[in-house]
Amino acid sequence: MTGRTERTARAVLAGERVSWRAYLSFLGPALVASIAYIDPGNFATNIQAGARYGYSLLWVVVLANVIAMLFQALSAKLGIVAGRNLAELCRAEFPEPVVFAMWIASEIAAMATDLAEFLGGAIGFSLLLGLPLIWGMVLVAVLIWGLLALEKQGFRPIEIVVGGLVGAIALCYVIEIVLTPVDWRAAAFHSVAPQLADAQALMLAVGIIGATVMPHAVFLHSSLTQDRTPAHNAEERRRLVRLSNLEVVIALSLAGVTNMAMVVMASGAFHAGHPEVAEIESAFHTLTPLLGSLAAAVFLISLLASGVASSAVGTMAGQVIMQGFVGFRIPVWLRRLVTMTPAFLVVARGVDATQALVLSQVVLSLALPIPMIALILFTRRVDIMGVHVNSRLTDGAAIAGAAIVLALNAVLVLATLGVAIPGLPAG
Predict the structure, then answer these.
(1) pTM value?
(2) What fold does the segment set 3-8+31-416 form as a domain?
């Protein structure tokens, strides 16, 4: 954080009379975390959901975003109050074999995250410049290294750049919605009416949750807040938690509306005449004759912004996970190289990139209960949280959110194994 930003934040926490602009100094951690909620994995799952099932899976996006808000707020609160991030507390509080297993699972989730984010940006460059996908990946790698270099100047420059990219993605989808014919009544109904048409819809629902409530974002958020603006007393800590909660609501509301816009756009553009559209590339090429070149160009810009920003943030999260669980830090360039490898292997083997994106989101959803359960356990402990321990209502809502994710995952595994699920038609 820059000296000016820190002075402004301290004035707000001290209760001094300040302008509304002073509160912008607290805007950053949730915006950085929110890019994980509109990464290329969301593009892949939302396009498939809207094209094949119309508006009927919008309720999943709403549910996932509500769960995301709750757990990101708990993660931010943990960092502020405990002064340690989630991975560090796991290492301190759990038995060593459990910590090792959690670390391995979290690293796999981080690689799945990186696969989605890196591939998304590479697809964007490939479509924009007419390059082979492998060269698109090289361009993304160069941009990511440049963005991560800003970390040497503190977190504020990265917060500003990532926040700007989040705003750009949201603006792109405002334009998309204006250009797309939308049945607003149907969209509103399906936002609150749960429905799963078949087993494929279930897989997409789990993928949407995996693409929205991200394990690495839950780990990262506690790290972003733990030392950003240290509270000097209980009153400052109370104000800091309140401001953090407000930022989470603002940032994730923006991400949530953008996610809903992705499904609405795909439904309005593709569902009636092109339900087979399931790939980012085919969506881009189909948008031009359907909605015009502006819609296709805006779609591509949003994909590029999402891929570059989310991949850089994913690398930051990977560092937090490794250092927190095992106390071991490697150079960012080496971390970037290791996590890029699966994406290069996918392209080299000729695997369908969009399908790889969707499957990566399912992997993320399966890994998600690890940070969710750990976060619930820590934020309900008085010895760690003090007066900021979860209320009964918050605790109940968090347990319910984790239970929903676990239930969907269990049904998905059973459906994948060919076990008949009562009330769920085969895909």
Answers:
(1) 0.87
(2) Amino acid/polyamine transporter I (1.20.1740)
